[in-house]
Amino acid sequence: MTDAAATSSDIIRCDACPVLCRIRDGQAGACDRYMNDAGTLRRVDPLLVTQRIAEQDGKLVPFVDGAWDGSLIPPTPTFVTGIGAGTTYPDYKPAPFIVGSTHDGVDMVTAVSEGVFSYCGVKVKIDTDRFLGDEQSTVTCDGEPVGHVTTAEYGSQMLALGGVRHLIGGSKREGTVTCQMMLDLCNKRAVELQVEGGAKVVVQAGAAPIIDGDLEARMRVGCGSATIGIFAPQWHGHADEVIVVDDHITGVLSEHQAGKFLDMPPAGIRVRGRKSTPGRYFQVADHGDGWGGTDITDPLAIVEKINPKVAWPGLRLMMVSTTGEDSAYFVLDDELKPVPAPMPAPLQVVTDRIAENCEPAMCSVLFMAGAGGSLRAGVTVNPVRLTRQVRDTQVVVTCGGAPTFVWPGGGITLMVDVTRLPDDAFGHVPTPALVAPIEFTMRRDDFEALGGYTANVVPLAEAMLKARVQPWRPDNPWPVR
Amino acid sequence: MTMLEPVAATLADGRLHLQHGPIDLLVGIDAASPVAAVGYRAAAARFPDILPQLAGELPALRTAVGEAYPLLAGPVARRMARAAWPHREVFVTPMAAVAGAVADEILAEIVSVGPVRRAHVNNGGDIAFHLAPGERYRAGLVTDIDHPSLDGFADLAASQGVAGVATSGWRGRSHSLGIADAVTVLAADAASADIAATLIANATNTDDPAIERRPARELMPDSDLGDRLVTVGVGPLADAQVVEAIAAGQAAAMAMWRRGLVHGAIVALAGRVAVIGEVPAPELTRSVS
Questions:
Q1: In sequence order, what are the residues at sequence separation of 6 or more whose Cβ sits closer than 8 angstroms to the Cβ of residue A169?
Q2: Which of A 91-110 lie inside 8 A of B, CB atoms?
Q3: How, if at all, do strands A200-203 and A191-195 pair?
Q4: d(CA A353, CA B220)
Q5: Residue A216: which of A327, A326, A129, A149 has the closest Cα?
Q6: Helices then strands (H, E): number in chain B?
Q7: C-alpha distance from B29 to closest chain A C-alpha (Å)
Q8: Distance in angstroms (rounded) separating the CA atoms of residues A446 and A70
Q9: Are A23 and A37 in contact (CB under 8 A)?
Q10: Are A329 and A341 in contact (CB under 8 A)?
Q11: What's the DSSP call for residue B67?
């Protein structure tokens, strides 16, 4: 994909090489590698291979710029992905490409294919302390139910999306919308989701979530109590009370174990909510997009009362959210009313440090699918042996070259982080079902032992002639070992 | 996007793969190992310049060759002009020789480094090759581009004086005015073979409603063929039509052969094959009707 310049309504100019072809919609350029796909320039070579280039910062071997020492470029370790391989579904035939290669002197075989997955779903982790919706709430996309809210995890909310029941168990439109939603998420595009009785969330793998129109910039550093535990010594001596506002647990320094440890006297400021243990309060306010994931915009609203027998004029009160995004400083006047005051520099330093310790909020998208069925028959005549060898880790399963987690138990049920796949690696069929690349890599002798289609193994060099080449992602482990 | 740089990679079998834009070369050298290494190095070193130089002269290269010899600067462009010039009585632009000319240029670079037994530069099916005296190449034959399989072999010997082989047809990467499935030409160099194959394929033609044609510019706005109708589909043809089309292609090939422009040609259409000139009798592994 590129920013090819539009030259007229249906012609784009390709700038991938000096020929600068003008390409009409639906046609390919002189190279047959790039086409105009409805105004967008796209690579169209069928099969994607990725190459590991150790000394080149993960870039393709750039051409000789005079500095080449004249030695032949060594054969670059190359891995063939299933992307663009096509499928032989329902798989009574060998996988479209079974590629033989030699790595470190060992003959390896990789069976690559694009699997058609009806049993597949997407697990989404959204880093946020905001309230997205109650557990088990239905998640809709484009008006159709496509999944539900599942567990809340540390600093994040999980969604379970897709799955066979939404794909083919509901109305035709529900299936179509579910399929498109999963396809977009897996291809790293943004998708707008609505939680019933909750928030509207824009989710995109690797990007910060947008919740009810607001970009969620940061995860909280911890709950209010944890924040007190981390920063108590840094506040000590600069404030007489610190209240850390948080939707889950709001912390009050002088009552908290950390404040006691520092011999801080009680300040007599009582916050709303239900007290858990000393200095820790649940439910000080409602969920919302205010301070620390509450609906609070005026922090003093959570102060229930100030005890005149305990508090004193001139008491220094610090209030801060668990992301450091919101903070305020007050000094009690003679009537023990909190009066806003400029925040002293040492307290500002701590506020900034809270913000600094909040990691960027991100959506992560894991594709999950079961390859337990006939897909295996594309590799071997005896499918259960493939399952067993995967289980025994003699066979490495990758998805577009990305490492997968294979679940214990029956079948080959895997999960993969979609950001580790090349762009646009997923496709779909009208069933509706998702199409995902999948590769099984093993030693050639293991391949023979499990009844693999040895006659269909083609040399790597031959497979590469029809392939488009991308650099290997250095953060993915090399699957051939 | 940043323009893609030319890339070079050595394949597992030792051949060199060079690619830049539409140019996609496979280079193989048989020589004593130091010579082969230097040869590959020379090929790779020559390569990056090729496409930018051609791109710089594209307008002239896309202009039909007429009464005046095309004035071109780059060495590859000059090879193209030289190959196109003898054919100026029909519509032809130097671009019809581009693939072969690039292969010739890289081959010349390789052969200049030292004693090379055999070398070939395959540019997407248009091949320049070198054979030292007494050496031979075995060329694989594919008669049906839709269902490519190795249908046979042809032996090429150094003594034949052939150094280029090229194939053209309407299903190929370049547009064709004709309907040949494949025209394969042997010539003294790949540029000459390339342009001859293109023109023989153009001539292999007949009129039939089953043939679908569209103006080249509708498919590719910068096509050197302008608004000429190029073949985009060929339905089932009556036998008589096939024979007429092949005969037309054969006549064009014969004319070139008599003038010494080609060593031989094979014209294939709808399962029929015509052989013109000095084509080594192919040893077929599959029957071709």
A1: none
A2: 101-102
A3: antiparallel
A4: 59
A5: A129
A6: 8, 14
A7: 13
A8: 39
A9: no
A10: yes
A11: S
Q: How far is B163 from chain A (nearest CA, A)?
A: 24
pLDDT tens readout for residues A281-314: 999 998 888 898 889 999 999 999 999 999 999 9
Tell me if the pTM is above 0.90. Answer: no
Alpha helices (H) along chain B: 33-46, 50-56, 58-61, 75-84, 98-111, 190-203, 216-219, 239-258
User: What digits encode the pLDDT tens for the residues A192-248?
Assistant: 999 999 999 999 999 999 999 888 877 888 889 999 999 999 999 999 999 999 988
Q: CA–CA separation, A260 vs A422, rounded Å? A: 53
> Cα–Cα distances in Å, from A101 out to A98, A404, B274?
10, 21, 41
Please state, in angstroms and rounded to a whole number, the distance separating the CA atoms of residues A437 and A401: 9
Where is A383: in which H helix or E strand?
Answer: helix A383-391
Q: Which of B5, B10, B13 sits opposite A74 (nearest CB)?
A: B10
Nearest to A31 by CA among A40, A39, A41: A41
Chain A positions in Cβ-Cβ contact with residue B58 (cut-off 8 Å)? 19
* Phi, psi angle pair for A396, to nearest 5°: -95, 125
CA distance readout (Å), B42 to B29, B54, B123, B164: 12, 19, 17, 20
CB atoms within 10 A of CB A173: 11
CA neighbor of B155 nearest in space, from B261, B278, B16, B30: B278
Chain B neighbors of A70, CB-CB under 8 A = 38, 41
Q: Which one of B47, B55, B173 has the shortest CB-CB distance to A19?
A: B55
Calpha distance A104→A469 (Å, rounded)? 21
Q: Which amino acid is at A310?
A: V
User: Which phi and psi angles does A446 have, rounded to 5°?
Assistant: -65, -40
Taking the CA of residue A111 and the nearest CA in chain B, the distance in Å comes to: 19
Angstroms from B20 CA to nearest CA on chain A: 7
SS3 content of chain B, % helix, strand, coil (to 5): 35, 25, 40
The tokens of A404 are what? 């997968």
Average pLDDT of span A132-146:
96
Q: Measured between beta carbons, which residues in chain A are less than 8 angstroms from residue B221? A: 11, 22-24
A143 burial class (0-12, 13-18, 19+ CB within 10 angstroms)? exposed
Could you identify the residue written with the tokens 């809340």?
A: A152
Name the residue facing A18 among B13, B24, B52 (closest C-beta).
B52
Instruction: Take residue B188 and report the two structure tokens written for it.
Output: 């003294």
Asked if B9's CB is within 8 angstroms of A63's CB, the reply is no
Residues of B in contact with A32 (CB under 8 A): 22, 173
Residue A430 to residues A146, A167, B252, Cα–Cα distance (Å): 17, 11, 50
- Are A72 and B220 in contact (CB < 8 Å)? no
Q: Which residues of A touch B17 (CB under 8 A)?
A: 464
* Angle at B225 (CA atoms; ends B219, B228), nearest 5 degrees: 80
Contact A442, A395 (CB under 8 A): yes
Residue pair A464/A470 in contact by the 8 Å Cβ criterion:
no
Tokens read off for A60: 């393709």
Contacts B109 to A, Cβ<8 Å: none
β-pairing, A303-306 vs A280-282, is unpaired
pLDDT digits (tens, 9 = 90+) for A244-274: 999 889 999 999 999 999 999 999 999 999 9
Q: Do B221 and A22 touch (CB under 8 A)?
A: yes
Provide the ipTM. Answer: 0.76
Q: Taking a C-beta distance cutoff of 8 angstroms, is the pair A270, A261 a contact?
A: no
Strands (E), A128-264: 138-141, 144-153, 156-162, 191-195, 200-203, 210-211, 214-215, 241-245, 249-252
Whether residue A72 and residue B37 make contact (CB cut-off 8 A), yes or no, is: yes
